[in-house]
Amino acid sequence: MMRRALLDLHGALVEAERREYERVRGRLTDRAFLQALISDPDLAWLNPLTALIVRLEEVPDPADCVAEVRQLLKPDENGSAFQRCYAAAMQRSAEVVVAHGQVLRALA
Fold first, then answer.
1. CA-CA distance, 106 to 88, in Å (whole number)?
2. Which sequence spans correspond to the domains of the chain?
3. pTM here?
């Protein structure tokens, strides 16, 4: 359940970032945006969440990652690069806020 909630959050973040990215740079094809997700430093802040989701596949007990998930998903304008960008994404997107709440419920 935690993994599913994290995947939904990741999807909401990617969509929110795509809207912002295209607002600044213009409309992109799916392929071009995927390439930007992989290589553009402006989108690299998403990598810690992506890596955590992948790691959940590898650990015998996903509950071992709960503390790491809680720490990463603390929106903080003075925190890590992820936390700063995450806080900004939550301000821009109601979908991200809803998905964040679902993750918190899954962690409880």
1. 23
2. 2-107
3. 0.91
